[in-house]
Amino acid sequence: MSAGRFQGGGLRAYTLFYLLFLYAPILLLPLFAFNSGTIIAFPLKGFTTDWFVQMWGNATLRRALTNSLTIAMSASVLATCFGIFAARASTRFEFPGKTGIMGFIMLPMVLPEIIVAMSLLVVLLGVGAELSILTVIIGHTLICMPYGIAILSTAFASLDRSLEEAAYDLGETKWSAFRLITLPLVMPGIISSLLISFTISLDEFIIAFFLAGNEPTLPTYIFSQLRFPKQIPMIMALGTVLVALSIILLAIGEYFRRRGIARIGGKDSGGFL
């Protein structure tokens, strides 16, 4: 066997092991979510949908889910809007201190979240703010914005500036050119920013734990229920629903990505799917 074939076989084996390690726990979620047994172990006992019914009938869980969805949607919209301004400025204009300013904006991406959460808690309590869903939205917007900027900066940087210049030559104002030309062309980046920010916010635990006060969020609720073994099957059902939701969001993001590439006549080099 040649060295090249051996290396190729080793790479395929590594890839298979990596994918198995990554996705096997996720594949186990629906197995135990539809299992009638209360113990998470093999062999399975039987098929049931009782855990999904119990999940839907749990008022505290519904409240936590509502809070998390409200926070995630608000934080993703705010982070994306701020990200559009920052990405537009960083890719189109030169101004004093540009590198340092963008570095500070992107800093939450690399800082430990527990440090960010503690700092936000001290600042918010210092100004007399009451811990609530609003404070979590502020924290999640801060965390999600660097990811949105990273995505949107790529979208703005790859945009052909001659299209904007042509719009100016045809009599469009800067605002109308941005609204009619630039914004539709970077829409795949905007959709991607919304989706990644929504996912990060929905999954985020540390900042929600510090800043939510008495309001439960989905991650904090799940963490609190892990102490009760009888609640684990319901958590498995909830995890199954969240995985299905993630797949739907991934499919939507891929649809808009391919649509955006087709709109500008680009070549698809592979994306999410």
Automatic annotation (TrEMBL):
CDD domains in UniProt: TM_PBP2
Q: Note whether Endoplasmic reticulum occurs among the keywords.
A: no
What transmembrane ranges does the database entry give?
20-44, 64-87, 99-127, 133-159, 180-212, 232-253
Q: Organism's domain of life?
A: Bacteria
A single Gene Ontology biological process assigned to it is: transmembrane transport
State if Iron is listed as a keyword. no
GO CC term, one of those recorded = plasma membrane
- Entry-linked InterPro entries: Bact_Polyamine_Transport, MetI-like, MetI-like_sf
Q: Which residues form the ABC transmembrane type-1 domain?
A: 65-253
Where is this protein found?
A: Cell membrane
The residues forming the signal peptide are none
Q: What is this protein called?
A: ABC transporter permease
Native species: Paracoccus alkanivorans
Lineage summary? Bacteria, Pseudomonadati, Pseudomonadota, Alphaproteobacteria, Rhodobacterales
